[in-house]
Write a structure and sequence with these properties.
85% helix, 5 helices, 103 residues
């Protein structure tokens, strides 16, 4: 009897650990917000004219993140949201180097 309890205990601990890890995954709210804000700033700065490729990539990553978010695939959503923000920042850098200075 004691032997069967000893073999069940490690399995119970592993199951509990797996449940805790799954419960710790939360929606990437901050990352999604950061990506949306970065895209908005890039658009306002003229990305559609001066950095259309980077902006298009950013929007694509954001759409992918939103799809993953709706499926509760939070880690994939987080990854794509971070990529969306990075592409929006790349768009801003491109704008700085290609847009003629304002008078």
């Amino acid at each position: 009897m004691l032997k069967s309890r000893l073999t069940i205990f490690p399995k119970a601990v592993l199951l509990l650990a797996a449940l805790l890890v799954a419960a710790c995954q939360t929606a990437p709210v901050q990352e999604m917000s950061d990506a949306r804000q970065a895209i908005s700033v890039a658009r306002e700065a003229g990305a559609e004219e001066y950095a259309a490729g980077e902006l298009q990539l950013a929007v694509g990553y954001l759409q992918s993140a939103e799809e993953h978010l709706s499926k509760h695939a939070y880690e994939r959503a987080r990854r794509d949201a971070v990529q969306a923000k990075e592409q929006a920042l790349n768009a801003l850098q491109r704008i700085e180097t290609t847009r003629p200075d304002k008078p």
